[in-house]
Design a protein that fits this description.
298 residues; mainly beta; 4 domains; four-stranded antiparallel sheet; 4 helices; globular; DC1; Chromatin regulator PHD family; C1-like_sf; repeat; Vacuole_Formation_Reg
């Protein structure tokens, strides 16, 4: 048994059940809300769609690497399966495990990724210098803004980012930590590699295969040189997580990140109001049904 789930969990070694966007197999960990791509892992065999990476069952109960906060592990996703919490570092909504500050009336909460966020990193895009973790507001003047060199999006003052102490180089924490070096797309038999600059001898315009919009090659993107296919780095989470069909990149390229820490498909029971289990699903703009209780549009 694991304290995060009501049913016994089985240790699974079957590789054909792993997350694989090429075969449209969706398997997300309920702890870190990331794809499960290696065995063994733990899963519920009673139809709950509940799974955990093996290492997510061994997360430390406390963290003390966040100055001013003593963080305790919160691993009861059933209580947050339909509400979630907002991470104090990345600002993303999360319904997986998290670390919450144990001080009274402190609302500092972080997802498990941001719980272990490093103070310094080395990055291939800026190989000559270390990048240090800072809060954007501590280096931002009232008359200037910081832009992430990876995606070009303005870094909000309340966010943590990574900064080079010698160069005018900044990465928001999503681009610095969450983008893998290669990804796979079911429409391309080759892996797409993360590119930090325009591809040498590329003879045509760049277009994203996910959102079908023009791509600016000075901003990080994924590219297959054999097939000349490209994908916005901000569109990659649609492929990496579970291709949930949410893409708001026409208006905001950070849109695909909004649900990167949310797992849909949770079974939720509202014992006082409905006799059957209900699934947490991602709605669409065309879904205009009213809420059963408040009658407001969903």
């Amino acid at each position: 048994m694991h304290p995060s789930h009501d049913h016994p969990l089985l240790l699974i070694n079957a590789p054909d059940t792993l997350h694989d966007p090429m075969r449209r197999i969706k398997l997300l960990c309920d702890g870190c809300v990331r794809p499960i791509t290696t065995t063994p892992f733990y899963g519920c065999n009673q139809g709950c769609n509940f799974s955990l990476h093996e290492w997510c069952t061994r997360l430390p109960s406390e963290l003390e690497n966040h100055p001013g906060h003593t963080l305790a592990l919160f691993n009861s996703p059933s209580e947050l399966a339909y509400t979630g919490f907002s991470c104090s570092i990345c600002g993303l909504l999360c319904n997986g495990f998290g670390y919450f500050c144990s001080r009274p009336r402190c609302n500092y909460r972080v997802d498990v990724h941001c719980g272990f966020i490093p103070e310094r990193i080395m990055h291939e895009a800026h190989p000559n210098h270390l990048l240090s973790r800072v809060k954007a507001s501590s280096i931002q003047s009232t008359s200037s803004t910081l832009a992430c060199h990876a995606c070009g999006i303005t870094i909000n003052g309340g966010e943590f980012c990574f900064r080079c102490g010698f160069c005018d180089f900044y990465l928001d924490n999503r681009c610095a930590l969450h983008l893998p070096k290669t990804i796979k797309n079911r429409y391309d038999k080759h892996p797409l590699k993360l590119s930090y600059s325009p591809i040498e001898n590329h003879k045509s315009e760049y277009f994203c295969e996910v959102c079908e919009e023009e791509l600016i090659p000075e901003i990080w993107f994924y590219h297959c040189q054999e097939c000349s296919q490209s994908i916005h780095s901000a569109c990659a989470p649609l492929i990496l997580q579970s291709e949930q069909g949410f893409n708001d990149s026409r208006n905001d390229r950070t849109g695909v990140y909004k649900f990167m820490n949310m797992k849909f498909g949770h079974l939720v029971t509202f014992s006082r109001s409905h006799p059957h289990p209900m699934l947490l699903v991602l709605g669409t703009k065309s879904d205009i049904r009213p809420c059963y209780f408040c009658r407001r549009e969903l």
